[in-house]
Amino acid sequence: MMTQPNTVPRTNGGRAAARLATYLRSEITEGRIPAGQFLRTERQLAADHGIARMTVRRALKTLESEGLVGAEPRHGYRVLARATDPDRGFPVAYVLGAPAGAKTWDGLHSGILNSFQRAADVRGWSVLAVNSGERAQAEVMEQLGAARVAGVALDTIDRELIDQVRRAGMPAVMVDAWLEDAPFDLILQDNYRGAYLAAQHLVERGHKRIAWMGSIGETGHSRERFAGAVAALIAAGLELPPEMRCRTGDADCREKAREMLGRADRPTGIIAPWRGISLALAAEAADQGLVLGRDLDIVGWCPEEDYEDYRRRAAEHGPVPPAVVWSIDHMARMGISRLSERRRDLYLPPIRLSVPTRLREG
After folding, report:
1. Is 28 in contact with 169 (CB distance < 8 Å)?
2. Which of 37, 101, 220, 224 is the least buried, fewest Cβ under 10 Å from its Cβ?
3. What's the pTM value of the predicted model, to 2 decimals?
4. Is the Cβ–Cβ distance between 150 and 67 less than 8 Å?
5. SS3 for 192?
6. What is the pLDDT of residues 317-335, one digit of tens each?
7. Alpha carbons 159 and 163: distance in angstroms, whole number
8. Distance (Å, whole) CA 134 – CA 199
9. What is the DSSP pairing of strand 323-326 with strand 297-303?
């Protein structure tokens, strides 16, 4: 908590309020009182500076009208994000929470970071890349506070870190990561629609034995994609029975693909809504002598920006399977736009924005 020297002279109320407002404004804009922190109470400020509480209140109302502080019932006045204006050089942060053992800045997350930097450049903003990984939340918050970030894009489902960002009053959005009860705006791939389109494509190709290969309930993405696929099958009068659900991740997907394709009752159509899993499945199908488009249909998933690489790698094994695609660039632009909105009004109710998904033929 800030220690206030007695810097405001005893004088008439108007001049004293203006002097206190000037002093506090300087403390805020110079970072000595960071965004998210509460000012000392009216009673404390009045005692510190030897002035009446009404005079203090007048100074605080001046700062509130400038957007530097906001009044919160029963708590006092909190320093708002405008004190760290990105137009004045303060960065916005992209915070990645890589799971244990994962490569931190993989192709997808490096792509999101690069797109964020491009979207921020358009506004003249800078971006601070933060890997939260297995670091203590307090350490991450200390880094964000020291950098005086103007806003935070959270690509993590670390509940404690999310809650600390919320309590600190930082403008924030969640990007490509989410929790059902998230307190911030969500910018996500349209997982439900993408998987719906994938299943619908297989139905239109005449398939009856359709399988799922990938995660199911481990993440928000998997839950939504699975729901979209099941919904499309139900709409067509079909089901996704337990024996057609292959729960797998990147590490063991090739082995799981071998087992699935080696079954006597193997599926003829497979929804594999993860890039690595769909490519592993295409490679295993080729090894078993199955021709995509004739013996088996697969629908994969990848960012629009990575599609040419996906197509090249899939073509090494034969015909290229279709894929659900979405734009990293659109996600980044939407994230920067929502951070700008959040800076103007921190207390808007959180909303969800979906980056459109579409089916791209191989």
Report:
1. no
2. 101
3. 0.80
4. no
5. helix
6. 999 999 999 999 999 999 9
7. 6
8. 37
9. parallel
